[in-house]
What we know:
The complex is a heterodimer. By secondary structure, chain A is α+β, with helices and mostly antiparallel strands.
Amino acid sequence: MGAFLEKQTPVASPVSTLRRRQILAVPVMLLSMTTLAGAWLQEPVAASRAGLVKQYCLGCHNDRAKTANLSMERLDSANVAGDAGSWEKVLRKLKANEMPPVGLPRPSADALKVFTASLESELDRAAAANPNPGRPTIHRLNRTEYSNAIRDLLGLDVKPGANLPADDTGYGFDNIADVLSLSPVLVERYVSVARTVARLAVGNTDVKPVIDSFNGLREVRTGARGQRAGRNDRISEDLPFDSVGGFSFRYTFPVDAEYVFKIKMALINGGFTETAPPVGQVLELRVPVKAGVRHVGLTFMRSDALAEVVPGVGRGGGGGRGAAPANTTHLDLRLDGARLKLYDVPEGQRGREINELSIAGPYNITGPGDSPSRRRLFVCTPAAPKDEDPCASKILATLTRRAFRRPVTGADIKPLFAFYKRGREDASFDQGIEMALRAILVSPEFLFRVERNPAGAAPNKAHRINDFELASRLSFFLWSSIPDDELLTLAEQGKLKDRTVVERQVTRMLADPKSQALVSNFSGQWLLLRNLEQHKPDVERFPEFDESLRRAFRLETELFFDSILRENRPATELLSAKYTFLNERLAEFYGIPGVRGSRFRRVDLTDSMRGGLLGQGSILTVTSYPTRTSVVLRGKWILENLLGAPPPAPPPDVPPLELRRNDKQLSVREAMEQHRVNPICASCHAKMDPIGFALENYNGIGGWRDKENDASIDASGTLPDGSEFRGPAGLAKLLLTKNEDDFVSTLTEKLMTYALGRGLESYDRPALRSIVREASKQNATIPALIHSIVNSPQFQTRRTGQS
Amino acid sequence: MIVTRKSLNRRTFLRGAGAALGLPLLDSMVPAFAATAKSTIRLGFVYVPNGMIPKDWLPQTEGAAFQITPTMRPLEPFRDKMVVLSNLTHVNARALGDGGGDHARAGATWLTGVHCKKTEGSDIRAAVSADQIAAKQLGAQTQFGSLELGIEEPSFAGGCDSGYSCAYTNTLSWRGPTTPNPVEISPRALFERLFGDGETTDFAARLKRMQENISILDYVRTDVARLQPALGTRDKSKLDEYLESIRDIERRIQKAEEQKAKKAPILDRPAGIPDLFEDHVKLMSDLMVIAFQTDMTRVITFMLAREGSNRSFPELGLPEGCHVVTHHQNDATKIAKAQIIEEHRAKVFAHLLKRMDETADGDGTLLDHTLLLYGAGIRDGNTHDHDDLPLAMFGGKSVGVRGGLHLRSKAGTPMTNLLLTMLDKVGVPGDTLGDSTGKLDQLCGL
């Protein structure tokens, strides 16, 4: 990483090197205080800069032509701060080596380097002198954050956010304040979901029974002779070791009561898909269950353990064989790992599968129970009627502090107490708390992240956000949820102003399992993993694709990102790592031997066919069409998400690609040649297509192939600047040598967007560069990037409004 | 009262009005209009899969003297409100060169009258169905344009019948030529759609919940007001969205104040899907009656099973699939079994008729103010043909339909002529539908 810093160092003047060291040595927060006039540099540099612009840029970027909507005629080379936005654009194009375009005269590499470096440091200085940390709009919780907030506020893990309408996304993420809007439908849903959640949290015993059904995943795979057979896997870590098939899930039992478990079986049926599962193949068990979240598991047993014979469960169609079936299989129903019942089920001709497991209840409610949510909610229990009101106040104060993420006042509690009173008078103490909770959950202070201007703040000035606001920024960034008690307490003590305290908190938060939210929400959106859920590869072309592969793809990439994060590895390993995470299914698909079973584990890779994100099925699938690969989609994805150089949208009326000519199927490469013929296409595709070609050895779902349509795959490519590469490994190597800075900076940009919940503006770019520089001192690991973001003025400060 | 009510404080009114207030608000079930004195006409279609054994369905005699056949026996109490229709045909459900797939075509053609595209892919194509044509007009005034209900889980396995997409057998209702309407089969989901997240249709309970929600919204409003001063302009505009949403909900509260009380029968939220066919159909029927009665919708399609269904009826002592027995190959035992199932379907359908006919509506019963078609898209499940479809229409007294009749049309008359006539009767006149050649004259004269 030393080399990385070296490259960023501008003109090798001893003074400037020294100055840079100083900058790097002081905390970023203090950057604004180091006054760096730099007037000594300005005159000669400005003159040569103006000369360079005149000679190489104005030919196109003048007032008349205004190519790409940019004229540089009026840009003042001596005062870049005057139009930092435009100069930032110029800087990006130069650093991406996109300007001047290939074929037009260019300054010498050295001159370009000097120009770029001095421009960058001047922009950085200008920003340091007059920082603009931006101003996130008041921020509505998105669905994920809502679910997590309910989980952490009430100890109730029921994902209520799933009942809210989908959130809009912006800048590639669904936590962008500006686009998270409110509609009457949403408010209605908030009111309704709040009621459901409050009843569940309190353990309302008036609740009517419901039946919740869970379908077994139909795992199918083509057998040796083409017929499909059930997959023999233990599919969850929560199931016993000797189990095959089946499934397990977490279920919230609302109160202490009886619940009915009902298992519906289906015969695996080959041909006639209209066949409904025969009715009557139902196993039923009614048992008392204590309130709370419990694991329910249902699976076939591999062993021949003694099983209870279930009377009345015979083969559909009746008659035929006698009472003792030729084949039986054992079905194991478990609750929190303990066996509820082992059934002995006759096997059908082609095997059996679980069609559905349903849980009905509650019946014969015995009480609200001692659920995690009640333990969390009822911090006191009134022993006598006179204790009720003080206890209610205490409960509401505790709850409101967590829900509103700030100290509470009497004015906060008063209206909520009125709700409590109303519910108390109507029904009971518990239902009083339930009423107040319903109000809290639709309060704007719960649903929005509010950042207030400090009293008497001047308009349009940067100010430090208060400790509570910082606690929320941290928790929503790293946990997609509300701050916990430790963070709130530190905020109350005013300790979050201390950088080392914040650093320790970030480390603690990353170690907490709740930071899984960062992995799944950030990587899930940055790497488009979420699109995997909707992707439907063509069954004819990709018969090996099924649900278990889809899940394995996503899990591989999440575990991979997770390991780079948690093992504190350089972000560049996302591209270069020679290991990944596989289970048997995925390893088989990748052609990697020696991986047995459904558990994912780290596997070292020995050849160049896989390695890093570019060899992962998830990404290769979402960047393909259902029927075929797309070098364009893959090239675009890399440019946009890894290199931060998104190609512009294609011009309108682009004719579809010709896939056949003279009745002959064209290879993808032949088809893509059409892009080169047309200069308008070539301007962008000259960069996109070669990158995509490097990945052509992967088919539309990421399987390795050496041939397509009987022709060997040519995975070589040449970029406009002449750099050549071959195959995924060659591409990764090129990205990591020529574009390492771009990659780290793009990842940082995405992380910042996610952290701040807003799109980055040109005024954020100096902070972005500073974050990258800071993190690069620690190998640019993902935790280092996170720490640097948290320490940045963009994260710690905020601009007041216009007035 | 009409004038003063507007000046009344809303909450004062709510407290005073008590039970006079019609419908819950946040249940999202407030129709956007005030009930008119003149009752409305509704339209319903109830579909039977796999045809019916013709000899046990079709009455031999025509006109008012027709005799109730074995399969019709459960419908006898409604003979006076029933018009049996025969000789109506769906030519477009025939193969017409496309080979097998009569189940898929039967479902897709029943209310569209077109020959659907043979495909298992996403390029499905039929046409806008009669219920949706009606819903476009009748539904403009209700909360739900139409409801599409069923009993059997839709299949999404790609193809469901000889190269046809499952979309053709899953539903009857097509919003557009390429957009089938999915069918809701869960009584609980239907209940929640109609009544929100409550546990019962009981009016007092709904009113209480509504009032709680109103006070919560009031609290939100004061809380927003408390926040506002500390915020910048853009933040304020976000919170304005919040306030605007609350106002929007309150506007609907006012609409509800104008609504006359329509007391829905008390029904607790169903827990889930009953196992027995009969229980499931009855529960869905009860919800349909409430939806019609409270004018949440005026158009419903209801499939007693997917077309091509192979559901078995162990409760009738028939563990084999119903599709299998309809392919009876003239085996008398199988024919008898098929007939038992068909009569059973008529029996559970009769529950819907009974409930509709005991529900008062306007100057008669709900059934009088509904035009309800019951029947199949296949004549005989053994031969898979689509001539002389088994069909019977119920209700419609308020629009001049006289029951107690068997109307035999000329052989080969398109069933779409009947659909056009029904649309005409519910006030949605049109000239053509699918392969229609005109209206059903005998029915027009009624």
